[in-house]
Amino acid sequence: MQPLPHSYTNRTLGDGATVVKCYQGAGALTRLRNEHAVLDALQGRVPVPPVLGSGGGCLTMTFMSGRHGQELLDSGHGVGVLRACGTTLQLIHQLDARDITASLHSRARGGQVLVHGDYGPQNLLLDPATLEITGILDWEWAHAGDRVEDLAWCEWVVRMHHPGQVGLLGMFFDAYGGTIPPWPERQAFMLDRCRSLLDHCRQQEPRGSGEAQWADRLAVTKAWHE
Known about the structure:
Layout: E1 2-3, E2 11-14, E3 18-22, H1 28-42, E4 51-55, E5 58-62, E6 67-68, H2 69-73, H3 78-93, H4 97-101, E7 113-115, E8 124-126, E9 133-136, E10 143-145, H5 147-161, H6 169-176, H7 183-204, H8 209-223
Antiparallel strand pairs: 1-2, 2-3, 3-5, 4-5, 6-8, 7-10, 8-9
Helix pairs in contact: 3-6, 5-7, 7-8
């Protein structure tokens, strides 16, 4: 088992056949139970890893092939990746949220769609040849909510971490389809999420690096324009 890249909150190991994800930080057990429940509920509906076992604060899952979307996004495949992000999110939001979230252990938030909770190219695996989605990862924050949560956060990820691809965000929204929440609503959610993460870091480690990082990200997000 070797540490896998792109694991920022938890410790994730893999050997090419299985993946072991060990949850760390506040609410680790709740997040583990959340992800286990939603992965079980989503089998056969969207491409997610089957759970093979649970214990010791970790989930063992089947390894899923593909390259992370964030790697492909900055290597000349921005259009294809963002289109795949949009069509896949539309599929997720068309699922029966009540059916899937009925067994979740997180606090009920209500809402009309199944919200991934950390949606973006960083949590998608794609076939590098076809740019088809092969896996949707990290469902620990899933809940029933409003579609703007996933739409705005995916946009935030691109704006914050892939600024050279911001001009392609229209591909993401066009692929999602329908009426997209207006910019003030999307930015308001981004700011609320940044404040929440800033407060979390402040409670966990006052005046630590995480607090400074999210204070800076909050300031950057405030300055954005559509």
